[in-house]
Each structure stands twice: as C-alpha cells, then as structure tokens.
Amino acid sequence: MTNTQEITPVPLPQLTVRELTADQVPPLPDPVKYKAYFDAEGRLPAPQDVQAGHYQKLVLDVRNGEFYFFCDDWRIPEDPDRREDRFPPVEGIWAPFHWLRVPDVIWWTIDSGIPVAERPYLTLEEGNAFARKVAPLAEALLLNLLPVPGTNTYDWSAEAASAGMDIKAACDRHQHPPQGRRPELVNMAEAVSVHPELVQDRWATLDDEQLDEEAEHLNRCGLSHNPAIAEGLGIDPKARHASLVGTRAWLHEHRRQAAAGRPLQSAAAYLTAHPALVTADTTNAELETVPEKAAAAAAAEGIVLLSNTTYVARTHREKRRQEVLDELATYGEARATAEAAVKSSRAAVYARLYRAFAWEERSDGRPAVSDTDLGKLAKVSRQAVGKLREQLDESAAEEATTDA
Length: 404
Fold this sequence. Notes:
Elements (H helix, E strand, L loop, with lengths): L15 E2 L13 H9 L16 E6 L4 E6 L33 E5 L14 H20 L2 E2 L6 E2 L2 H14 L13 E3 H7 L13 H18 L1 H7 L9 E3 L1 H13 L4 E3 H7 L10 H17 L3 E3 L3 H48 L13 H8 L3 H22 L1
Parallel strand pairs: 1-3, 7-8, 9-10
Antiparallel strand pairs: 2-3, 2-4, 5-6
C-alpha cells in the first residue's frame, strides 16, 4: 500500500468443475481431411482441420474458482491484431518464467492432436472427464495461493506452483503422474527460517513499486545469491526451476507487521498532502532535511512513511517548480494575447478617430464630434484626442506644403 486506505484481498472461492456442453465446443478436426492433405504432399490447399493445432485446454478461473475443459474454435483463423481480445488471455498461459504474479485466469494446453498417437483430440465427454480427474490438483493450486497484504492480488507458494506443474504434466501427451511439492521451489518463509540474515531493515519502508522490484529480485536471484538457504534446506540451488517463491506476499506481510497496525503512506503522497514541507522555493540544503522532518510529522500522526528519501523530496520540488513554469507559460500566453488584442484595438480606435476628424464641421464651425465626446467613446482623455487631431492637422499641412 502507498496510501492510508487498506485493501482487503478477495477470499479465494471453493473450486468447482464446470462441464461444457456440445454447443460450447467446436467439432473435432476431420482426420480424413488431415490425412488426405499430407498424403498429397502439399499439392492440395490446407484445410483448416490441419491448422487446428493444440486447441484444447484446461482453464482455471482464480477469481470464481471454476475449472473446466475448454476448446478454441479452430475453424476461425486467429486474428493477430486482436490477440488481446482472445480468451483465455495470453498472460494466463502456464509457462511461468518466474513466480511473481498470479493471473486471474490460468490455462494449460493439452498436448493432443490428430498425429499424436499417445493422445488424440479429446471428445467433449473425455474433456469434461479429464477436467474432473485433474480437479484435485487445481484445488491444491487454488487453496495454496498466498494473498498479498494491502492488495487484491495473490502470489504463488511452492505448493501452488508445484500443483500447477503437475497439471501441466497431466496435460502432456504422456500424462505424467503428479510429483507433489518440488523441493527446488522454496517458500520465502522457509528461506527466512533457515537464513534470518536474508531480511533487510529497509524492506519495512519500501513503497509498493520498490517492494515488488525487491520481490522479483529475490525470486530470480534469492537462492543463488544466498547459498545458506540451500544449505539449510538441503536442496540443490542449481536444480531446474529452483527459485524462491511467495516473495511478494512475504515482503508485503513483513512490511505490514513492521507497521504494527499503523497506516502506510508513500512519502510522495504525504508531501502532496503537506505542501509546506516542500515548495518550489525549497533550497538544496533544505531538501536534505525534508526526510527527517516528514518522518517526524508522519510519526506524530501515527503514519509510517514509505520511500522517504531526499530523492523523493527533490522529485516533489521539481513537480512544484514545473507547476510554476506551467503557470508562467499560461500567463505569458495570456499576456501576449492581451497585448495583441490591445494593439489591434488601438489601431482600430485610431482609424475611426481619424475618420471622425475628417468629417465636415458643423455650421457654427465646431467639429462634427467634439474631442470630449470622441474621448468618451474611445475611452481616452479629451487631451489625447486633441493631440491626435493636432498631429493629423500637422501632417496634412506638411503634405500641402510639399505639394505646393
């Protein structure tokens, strides 16, 4: 969390197996067309049946707990421009490079096909039965996911990840039996129990983004950079898939416990809520004292500040200074517009005054419109109008002299 409002994870539902009906799956690709195409050695156009590929899947909806057999409609060619709209979503495919985030929908490709002697395409009945058979593994995965405190997301545990690997093995054409918990997958809590020195004080005051970066680093490099963990657990840190698991959930829980019930807030959010701490005019020397002042002020309010550094204060000052510069640009534009309007209006006023000056005098010798009246209309003084009239008369006299 980076603000003072706590988010409670949505409880994971109980697993249910949803059975598909005939109208929810496409027909099986035709093996006769498939064979005829390959017998022709490419001389015939490829029917869509040939391009069906591994279109059968097992799907787990983490949010509603549904587990089911699923089929892409192989009759419809995939549109590469609409990959983001496909179901199940690409990000949910079971091919985790690292154990970081749990997608809302996870799916496994069933290694079935016309040329796969060990596992031909499954019929609807076989697919539903396969989902029921694998359901205990999906339930184990679901029950062992770890809620990430302060978020509505989940993290992997070694048990959940191992169950997912067993589902993948079951989907293989050879249908490998489950292996259970993989010893090379180490829960973060287990790592800390045998190597307490792994824990760093700074973790308690990292913001969400920094904490997730730390979780990724531990997940990728935690075992290789901390050989004491493997030694303490008696595992091979170089084994395939060896990794620290559940790092994100553990770090967020560690930070929550360190806060001892106090709300968490990022320093950036706190500085925004307390503008007097950093302004556009704060000096470099003053910036150095901001983290200490902010921490003291936040502590007095019972708040734990996250990522409370001089860098954050400097970034905040730059934002305030940018606001000043943005205001300068706004007012500068307004000033230029106003001056352009004044210049245009002045020229228009003068042009109309000159026209009024040229009008014939009245019968009593007075101007057609007095300087006083012209000044009131033009919003200038009578003297200013009189001066313009004199300048015009002088120019006319000079022209007359020149012409003579």
